[in-house]
């Protein structure tokens, strides 16, 4: 896919790219436990808006975050794909419109987010400059449901 | 003692049923991090198990001081510890065990008698050994200066006992045990004239090792006699985490199986295969669950010692009886009831059983009886602690509760005895006149209730002044699986724990407008003449309440700690045994859900928390507790006394409430007949219907019939009634002259009422259609009309 110029200090990183609306986001492959296609989370009434619901995962019940809602987009009509992510507090799900592909990108193409990003800035690490678009890298740890609940809405 | 909650569970082969062999060991709580040497760890576990067994034997020994078996068992334990320590190099432990062994040897040989002093000393020895083991477990070594001093002190006491007894007796034989210790003078003199000396003890003081061997030989002989000691070889220790993982996987397998069964239902070629899969899955699930089960004796075994110590402190004479020790319970639940059990026993000894003098004065035997009983009842295990002591004086409970400001005086005045007894469970309550160091601080029963309810259990209390008190803990078999009713709302399923559910009311679409009434914005329902506040589940969950009163509804009447309300849901599915899965903190913080579960259909369902819903909806404890109508949820004891009062053929009749499953309102047209006997088809299940009041003959096809659906565990029967009148408690009727209770009749709502006997109804079948028509009701001389008997006879 992306031909990266091999500079001296650049490291190659594997990133899973996901589509949400028109945008392309990236999540480090190492943070992903499993990719589940076509999941239908069971809604949880009264839960915060960014919670997509519950998903049955390997005998456990997984709380799932709706990335569209986290990013302030209207809820999706279609069946979404699900990433199972893990952080220190255990696994959780992330519902995205579609899982695209696993890219091997060079850290030379990465740039930290500019200071002008104000909305939900804690969620983003920066972006990879792909040939035809930007792939915005997400901070996996910040997507953890409890963390999201503490996140100020639009700052 | 040394047993902590976490750690390992002993997975055992099913045939090794000797309770003592099934103890799980705890010493490994920190074992992994500390990388304790495998051998030492094994030794600590084994020794702790041995000591637990020894503790039981010691308390038994007090009542049967001459039991050679018991002595041999104790001896064996101490000897095993001593043998292993020498080789592992724990000197302090070895010395202590050695001293104890010598004392035990004398006991066994009959040189000294197992009196209270000796047993106390042996119990101290046990504690001493335990504390060294704990140090080894936690610190990897036995050294601890302060403790060592205590041990020396203990050794001195043990040695002194041997000396004292031998000096008192004719013998004067002295053990060499103290030789390595501070009292050399007691060690050296060997009295050869002692003739009843067993070979193992007639050893030579200079060679402790030789003595060890000598006794070892004897041990071998003793050990050979009880054959069950080989059970240890058929058991295996398994990490609890692994078992939990297995349990999870089995849960997943169950779901996969359900899906396979659904997918292959149409394919006859797959039938055999899927049936086999079904069976294997069910067996596997049961097997894994059994692996988590532990006998109640694991916690009961702590009681004899406790009773012994307490009765000495409190100056009571108590005989302990234990029953049903082999009853099994999930490990985590067993752990959870340890404290409640301790409190209940303490209470029984301190507040229950009176001092010997007081007992004699009341004409009771000097010795009180404390009875521990465990029995499995369906999906619950009942653990009972009862005493034959003073009981609870209801009046002093009333006074005390008012004095402590727990309830208002006018409220207290109108409370029933049963309700007053429940006050004991309030935090801060104690009737003890003075605070002793055993109990009386007013935390006991509160702790019992809190802990038991935390694991989904219930506590009941029965007391008769002067005759004793029974604390009954009703514990679910496993924590992970609870019976629940699946309800539907907002187009999805929710699970409602059945423990809080008292009854279900069906409101059809036509009636909804009339049945659900409103006081301002609060919906209510008239349940047998009383207003029941309603909570609309979909509104509670955030939906707009637009079409309430136009649709079909189900009202599930819930009782959350005395807060009674009706939860209105859109639909009901079958009850299911659900596997509880924990929720993530973010969803727990919603406050309505206690967990989630995966249903048989692979659909996820949230588990509703009845208490939290009541709180959120603003339901408070109902004011009309005292009308006798309140369905006491405290389980069988209460419901045994309660009856659903109905009218049948113009007469009052009753069904035991615990046998009532639900009350259905069905159009008469739905009634079908099999060989002239009425039946109902409920979702593909055939329900046999009895019509004692002969309403079916007269009912127009568009009329609706009330059918009380009853169950006696094996079969369901529907009884057509005219009207449901009430739920009431009833008293037995005594037959004039004989003064014995008349079966089948109760005094309910101030009228003599005959009670349907489901056994007789269920015993009915096509071949003996007349046989069932004899109700158990003995027809007493004209005072009562055998209401049901005549009409049933005609009904066949």
Give the topology, please:
The complex is a heterodimer of chains A (155) and B (796).
Chain A (H helix, E strand, L loop, with lengths): L11 E9 L2 E6 L3 E8 L11 E7 L2 E7 H4 L9 E8 L2 E7 L1 E9 L3 E3 L11 E6 L4 E5 L6 H6 L5
Parallel strand pairs in A: 2-11, 5-7
Antiparallel strand pairs in A: 1-2, 1-8, 3-6, 4-5, 6-7, 9-10, 10-11
Chain B lengths: L7 E5 L18 H4 L3 H26 L4 H21 L2 H19 L6 H24 L5 H24 L39 H17 L10 E5 H25 L6 H21 L1 E3 L1 H4 L2 H12 L3 E6 L4 E3 H6 L1 H15 L3 H6 L6 E10 L2 E8 L6 H10 L5 H5 L3 H6 L21 H11 L3 E7 L3 E9 L4 E9 L2 E6 L3 E7 L4 H4 E4 L2 E6 L2 E7 H4 L12 E8 L2 E7 L1 E9 L5 H4 L4 E6 L5 E5 L1 H8 L18 H4 L2 E7 L2 E6 L3 E8 L4 E3 L2 E6 L2 E6 L4 H4 L5 E8 L4 E6 L1 E7 L1 E4 L6 E8 L2 E5 L2 H5 L24 H9 L1
Parallel strand pairs in B: 4-6, 11-20, 15-17, 22-32, 26-28
Antiparallel strand pairs in B: 1-2, 3-5, 6-7, 7-9, 8-9, 10-11, 10-18, 12-16, 13-14, 14-15, 16-17, 19-20, 21-22, 21-29, 23-27, 24-25, 25-26, 27-28, 30-31, 31-32
Characteristic key phrases:
heterodimer; A: 155 residues; mainly beta; OB fold (Dihydrolipoamide Acetyltransferase, E2P); 6-stranded mixed sheet; 5-stranded mixed sheet; 48% strand; globular; B: 796 residues; alpha+beta; Four Helix Bundle (Hemerythrin (Met), subunit A); Helix Hairpins; Heat Shock Protein 90; 5 domains; 26 helices; 32 strands; 37% helix
Short description:
The complex is a heterodimer of chains A (about 160) and B (about 800). Chain A is mainly beta. Chain A contains 2 helices and 11 strands; from the N terminus they run E-E-E-E-E-H-E-E-E-E-E-E-H.
How does this structure look, described?
The complex is a heterodimer of chains A (155) and B (796). Chain A has 155 residues and is mainly beta. Chain A has one domain: CheA-289, Domain 4 (OB fold (Dihydrolipoamide Acetyltransferase, E2P), Beta Barrel). Chain A has two helices and eleven strands; from the N terminus they run βββββαββββββα. Chain A has helices at 67-70, 145-150; strands at residues 12-20, 23-28, 32-39, 51-57, 60-66, 80-87, 90-96, 98-106, 110-112, 124-129, 134-138. The N and C termini of chain A lie far apart (35 Å). Helix content of chain B is 37%, strand content 26%. The longest helix of chain B has 26 residues, at 38-63. Chain B is globular, with a radius of gyration of 32 Å. The N and C termini of chain B lie far apart (65 Å). Chain A binds chain B through residues 42-48, 51, 54-56, 58-61, 63, 89-90, 92, 145-146, 148-149, and chain B through 248-249, 251-252, 255, 490, 492, 541-543, 581-587, 589-590, 592-593, 596-598, 602-606.
């Amino acid at each position: 896919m992306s031909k990266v110029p091999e500079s001296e200090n650049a490291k190659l990183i594997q990133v899973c790219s996901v589509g949400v609306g028109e945008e392309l986001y990236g999540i480090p492959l190492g943070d992903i436990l499993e990719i589940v296609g076509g999941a239908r989370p069971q809604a949880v009434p009264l839960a915060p808006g960014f919670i997509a619901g519950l998903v049955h995962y390997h005998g456990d019940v997984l709380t799932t975050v709706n990335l569209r809602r986290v990013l302030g987009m209207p809820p999706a009509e279609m069946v979404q794909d699900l990433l199972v992510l893990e952080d220190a507090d255990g696994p959780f799900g992330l519902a995205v419109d579609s899982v695209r592909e696993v890219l091997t990108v060079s850290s030379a193409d990465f740039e930290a987010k500019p200071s002008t990003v104000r909305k939900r800035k804690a969620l983003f690490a920066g972006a990879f400059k792909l040939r035809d678009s930007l792939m915005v890298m997400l901070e996996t740890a910040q997507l953890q449901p409890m963390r999201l609940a503490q996140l100020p809405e639009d700052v | 003692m040394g047993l902590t909650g976490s750690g390992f569970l002993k997975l055992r082969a099913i045939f090794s049923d000797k309770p003592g062999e099934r103890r799980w060991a705890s010493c490994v709580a920190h074992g992994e991090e500390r990388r304790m040497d495998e051998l030492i760890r094994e030794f600590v576990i084994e020794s702790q198990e041995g000591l637990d067994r020894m503790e039981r034997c010691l308390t038994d020994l007090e009542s049967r001081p001459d039991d050679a078996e018991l002595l041999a068992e104790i001896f064996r334990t101490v000897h095993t510890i001593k043998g292993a320590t020498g080789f592992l190099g724990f000197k302090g432990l070895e010395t202590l065990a050695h001293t104890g062994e010598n004392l035990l040897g004398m006991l066994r040989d009959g040189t000294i008698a197992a009196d209270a002093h000796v047993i106390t000393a042996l119990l101290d020895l046990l504690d001493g050994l335990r504390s060294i083991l704990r140090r080894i477990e936690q610190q990897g070594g036995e050294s601890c200066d302060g403790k060592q001093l205590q041990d020396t002190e203990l050794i001195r006491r043990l040695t002194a006992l041997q000396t004292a007894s031998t000096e008192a007796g004719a013998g004067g034989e002295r053990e060499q045990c103290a030789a390595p210790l501070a009292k050399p003078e007691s060690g050296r003199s060997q009295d050869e004239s002692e003739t009843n000396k067993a070979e193992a003890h007639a050893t030579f003081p200079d060679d402790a090792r030789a003595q060890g061997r000598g006794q070892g030989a004897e041990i071998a002989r003793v050990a050979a006699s009880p054959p069950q000691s080989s059970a240890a070889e058929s058991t295996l220790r398994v990490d609890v985490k692994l078992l939990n993982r297995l349990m999870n996987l089995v849960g997943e397998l169950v779901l996969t199986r359900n899906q396979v069964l659904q997918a292959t239902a149409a394919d006859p070629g797959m039938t055999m295969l899927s049936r086999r899969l079904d069976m294997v899955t069910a067996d596997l699930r049961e097997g894994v669950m059994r692996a988590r089960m532990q006998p109640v004796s694991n916690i009961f075994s702590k009681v004899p010692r406790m009773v012994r110590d307490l009765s000495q402190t409190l100056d009571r004479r108590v005989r302990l009886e234990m029953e049903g020790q082999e009853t099994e319970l999930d490990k985590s639940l067993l752990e959870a009831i340890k404290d409640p059990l301790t409190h209940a026993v303490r209470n029984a000894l301190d507040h229950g059983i009176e001092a010997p003098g007081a007992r004699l004065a009341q004409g009771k035997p000097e010795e009180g009886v404390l009875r521990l009983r465990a029995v499995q009842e369906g999906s619950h295990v009942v653990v009972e602690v009862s005493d034959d002591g003073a009981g609870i004086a209801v009046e002093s409970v009333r006074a005390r509760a008012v004095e402590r400001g727990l309830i208002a005086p006018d409220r207290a005045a109108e409370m029933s005895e049963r309700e007053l007894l429940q006050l004991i469970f309030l935090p801060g309550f104690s009737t003890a006149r003075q605070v002793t160091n055993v109990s009386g601080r007013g935390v006991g029963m509160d702790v019992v209730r809190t802990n038991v309810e935390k694991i989904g259990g219930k506590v009941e209390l029965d007391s008769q002044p002067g005759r004793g008190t029974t604390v009954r803990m009703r514990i679910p078999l496993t924590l992970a699986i609870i019976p629940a009713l699946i309800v539907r709302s907002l187009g999805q399923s929710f699970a409602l724990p059945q423990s809080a559910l008292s009854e279900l009311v069906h409101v059809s679409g036509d009636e909804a407008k009339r049945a659900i009434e409103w006081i301002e914005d609060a919906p209510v329902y008239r349940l047998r003449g009383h207003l029941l506040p309603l909570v609309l589940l979909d509104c509670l969950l955030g939906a707009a309440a637009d079409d309430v009163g136009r649709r079909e509804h189900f009202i599930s009447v819930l009782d959350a700690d005395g807060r009674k309300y009706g939860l209105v849901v859109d639909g009901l599915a079958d009850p299911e045994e659900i596997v509880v899965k924990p929720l993530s903190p973010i969803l727990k913080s919603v406050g309505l859900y206690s967990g989630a579960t995966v249903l048989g259909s692979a659909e996820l369902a949230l588990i509703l928390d009845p208490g939290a819903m009541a709180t959120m909806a603003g339901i408070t404890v109902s004011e009309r507790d005292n009308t006798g109508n309140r369905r006491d949820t405290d389980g069988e004891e209460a419901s045994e006394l309660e009856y659903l009062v109905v009218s049948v053929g113009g007469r009052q009749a009753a069904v035991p409430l615990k046998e009532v499953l639900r009350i259905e309102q069905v159009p008469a047209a739905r009634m079908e007949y099999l060989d002239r006997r009425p039946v109902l088809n409920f979702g593909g299940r055939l329900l046999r219907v009895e019509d004692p009041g002969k309403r079916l003959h007269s009912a127009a096809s568009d009329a609706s019939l009330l059918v009380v659906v009853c169950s006696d565990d094996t079969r369901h029967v529907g009884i057509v009634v005219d009207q449901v009148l009430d739920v009431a408690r009833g008293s037995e009727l005594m037959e004039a002259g004989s003064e014995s209770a008349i079966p089948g009749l109760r005094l309910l709502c101030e009228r003599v009422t005959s009670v349907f006997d489901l056994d007789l109804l269920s015993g009915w079948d096509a071949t003996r259609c007349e046989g069932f028509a004899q109700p158990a009701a003995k027809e007493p001389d004209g005072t009562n009309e055998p209401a049901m008997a005549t009409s049933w006879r005609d009904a066949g």
